[in-house]
Structure formats: C-alpha cells, structure tokens
Amino acid sequence: MGRIDQLLAAYSRQISLPLKFDLPLSQRVWFVVYPPEEERRLATRIGEFEIATKDAKLAWKLIDLQGVFADWMDTFDPEEREQCLANQDILENYADPFFKDFVCSRISAALVEPSETAGNQTVVAVTGLMDLYDFVHVSTVVEGLDKTFPGILLLFFPGDREGNSYSFLGARTGWNYLALPILAES
Q1: How would you write the pLDDT of the chain (186 residues) with one tens digit per residue?
Q2: Are 36 and 74 in contact (CB under 8 A)?
C-alpha cells in the first residue's frame, strides 16, 4: 500500500470517530503529514479525502493556497511590486506580517461562503501550503485565524513530525503544536 493510500486510510479512520466541535481551535486542527516529494500525488487524490469526509456525514470545504503569494503581490501597485521583487530584504519585511494577514483573510473569506451543512460540521481542508514557504510559518497562519473558526481545520502538511514537533518541508526547524497528526503507517 502506497503512502497516499495509507494517509487516506488513517484519515478515514479518524473522520469516522465521534468528533467534538466545541473544543478550542488548537484542538480541532489536523495535519495530514506527508513527504514533500509526494505533493503532486497527494494533490491528485484530494477528492478521495472529500469522499471520506462526506461518507462520515460531514461537509467539506477545500481552500487551495497555491498561487496565494502571487495574488498578494498583485495587490501592490506596480512600482512598489517591482521594488520588492528586486530586493529580497524588502520583500521579507513586507511579508511579515502582511502576507500572513492576507493568507488568514483568504481562508476566512472562504469560510463565509455558504456550505452544504451548518458551519461547525465542516472539514475545512487547506492545500498549497508550499506557497507559504520562506514568507510565513504555517503555525503563524493557524494562530492568526479567528478562534471561533468553525469545524475541523485539515492542513495538508508537506514535511515531517517527531512527537509534537513539525518541520515544514523538512527544512525549517520544527515547532510544537497541539494538532492531531494523520500519518502514513510505517
């Protein structure tokens, strides 16, 4: 059985358990952890995670952050954008905290769109996290979301996990987080 099949099986088991939607957001975050080289394979199988969610009688909301950095840069006037792209230091200063705010607002805006069931019975799946690399930490984005965020926040996380420490793309030093890990069985 391949890694993606193992992740899907682990997710299907987890989503079929009784869920508590009244917990704080930090306890309703799930990380599907996979090696970065599996990104494309996983992307082609996201629909199967949606099917598993709907089989558990929950709604599914997919938010793809792929291209979010380019979208953020498009909010700059052309001269400012050119200056930022020409100087990496300026770009990094702009990205912190403005890019984080842009990403959080993108996720929040998607949450107010109508879904097929009541808000807290929804799994909000976020893909495309690789576009955040070098500009904002995933943990910072999660912490920046409204604490009244409904449902389960499911992050497809390219990286690895040891204990409660997660390492984004295997390159950043890990951080501790209370998220529930969904892992391929070894």
Answers
A1: 799 999 999 999 999 999 888 888 888 899 999 999 999 999 999 999 999 999 999 999 999 999 998 898 888 889 888 887 787 776 666 666 788 899 999 998 877 665 544 556 889 999 999 888 878 888 888 888 877 677 899 999 998 887 777 777 766 565 656 788 899 875
A2: no
- Tokens representing 5 are 């099949």
* DSSP classification of residue 91: H
Are 52 and 11 in contact, with CB atoms under 8 Å apart? yes
Dist CA 122 CA 27 (whole Å)? 15
Q: Do the strands 122-127 and 59-64 form a parallel or antiparallel pair, or are they unpaired?
A: parallel
* Domain chopping of the chain, boundaries: 3-182
What tokens were used for 132? Answer: 């955040």
User: What is the reported pTM?
Assistant: 0.87
The alpha carbon torsion through 48, 10, 145, 167 (nearest 10 deg) reads -110
Closest Cα to residue 172, out of 36, 64, 28, 4?
36
Instruction: Dig out the tokens for 100 from the structure.
Output: 């984080």
Nearest to 38 by CA among 171, 159, 124: 159
